């Protein structure tokens, strides 16, 4: 099995290279700049790893590189500007595709643009294989096995500490209008912007008081309705985190920052992702995903997501995580990496890992 990494020279890309090396998976580093690719290989300690230079405006070079591989992990953000060119080339090369994007509108355009093309080519494309979308999407599928029919699903992210990579900040700045507007909501079969949030606060497990939340564009809103029959899906984040992402940042300020959080920062970070489902009969269920180190977990998830597409196969097309992977099995794989999850139906715990 050989896996290509596009955007291999970035902060997330280098973490992915190190994880592929740790797992003894053959890899090909691909990016637009030969010097930065070589530097990345040196930093990760894989100087002999194969490298190919291919810019996103050189379709033939991208296809030639990806044709050598079984799957591709795209870490080159912002994805809104360059992601489509990479996916188009992966499909032409017959190479399965996952990416680390957190850009919600981009995720939606991947489904809208490439579903038929990927299916015809026999290629599986899964955007947003990151720390939030994969566990959130898989847990939502498990909730739907317990509560039916579902009126609404609310996904809420709470992250303490850690900080952001320059690439994440560039993605945030590049999609700032969507962030300010709260992103997409899903209602009765379609996605739209501008719908006010149904919830202004969420109570974390064991918290004495509710926490103020605001709408924030998360890719789970795009993926969950692909496999869960539900009337309304929205995504929220605690208001303090939203204020951080809304802080005015220029490209110059971002360039002056460190590439990304230190290992110590990553170890100290904690996240809690809540997936709340309310049935039309009033029954409710809550999934709680906890972990630390969003970049480290994204790395583990993206590599395993790509590996499983090659080793186990999935149907061709653009898929949500739960359409490609067995939810319980994939979540169990994440447990040794510090991810814990619980599902509680109407206050009665029914499953836990
Ligand atoms: N939960 C989440 O939402 C989540 C979690 C983790 C990561 N992410 C996303 O992952 C992405 C990567 O983050 P990062 O910290 O690794 O960023 P980074 O350090 O800035 O690296 C970006 C990489 O993409 C390449 N690149 C950027 N624009 C390109 C273009 N137009 N054409 C070709 N290559 C291009 C860069 O190549 P050069 O070296 O040549 O500049 C570099 O290799 C971000 O979008 C981030 O938001 C999201």
UniProtKB/TrEMBL annotation:
Domain of life of the source: Bacteria
SUPFAM superfamilies: NAD(P)-binding Rossmann-fold domains
Gene3D superfamilies from the UniProt entry: NAD(P)-binding Rossmann-like Domain (3.40.50.720)
Residue ranges annotated for the Saccharopine dehydrogenase NADP binding domain, each copy included: 3-126
Protein name, as recorded: Saccharopine dehydrogenase NADP-binding domain-containing protein
């Amino acid at each position: 099995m050989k896996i290509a990494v596009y955007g291999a020279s970035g902060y997330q890309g280098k973490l992915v290279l190190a994880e592929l090396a740790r797992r003894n998976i053959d890899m090909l580093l691909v990016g637009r700049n030969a010097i930065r690719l070589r530097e990345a290989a040196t930093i990760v300690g894989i100087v002999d790893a194969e490298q190919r230079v291919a810019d996103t405006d050189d379709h033939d070079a991208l296809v030639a590189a990806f044709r050598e591989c079984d799957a591709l992990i795209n870490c080159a953000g912002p994805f809104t500007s360059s992601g489509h060119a990479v996916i188009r080339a992966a499909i032409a090369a017959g190479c399965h595709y996952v990416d680390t994007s957190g850009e919600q509108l981009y995720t939606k355009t991947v489904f809208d643009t490439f579903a038929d093309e990927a299916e015809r080519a026999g290629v599986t494309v899964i955007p947003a294989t990151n720390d939030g979308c994969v566990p959130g999407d898989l847990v939502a599928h498990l909730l739907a096995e317990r509560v039916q029919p579902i009126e609404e699903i609310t996904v809420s992210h709470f992250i303490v500490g850690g900080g952001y990579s320059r690439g994440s900040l560039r993605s945030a700045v590049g999609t700032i209008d969507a962030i300010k507007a709260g992103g997409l909501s899903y209602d009765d079969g379609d996605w739209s912007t501008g719908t006010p949030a149904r919830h202004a606060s969420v109570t974390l497990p064991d918290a004495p008081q509710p926490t103020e939340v605001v709408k924030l564009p998360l890719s789970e809103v795009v993926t969950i309705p692909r496999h869960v029959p539900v009337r309304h899906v929205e995504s929220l984040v605690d208001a303090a985190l939203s204020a951080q992402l809304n802080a005015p940042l220029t490209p110059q300020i971002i360039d002056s920052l460190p590439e990304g959080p230190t290992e110590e920062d990553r170890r100290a970070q904690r996240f809690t992702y809540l997936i709340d489902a309310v049935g039309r009969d009033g029954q409710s269920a809550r999934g709680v995903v906890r972990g630390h180190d969003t970049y480290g977990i994204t790395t583990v998830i993206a590599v395993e997501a790509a590996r499983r597409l090659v080793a186990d196969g999935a149907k061709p097309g653009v898929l949500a995580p739960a359409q490609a992977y067995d939810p319980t099995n994939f979540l169990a794989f994440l447990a040794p990496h510090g991810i814990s999850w619980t599902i509680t139906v109407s206050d009665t715990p029914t499953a836990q890992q």
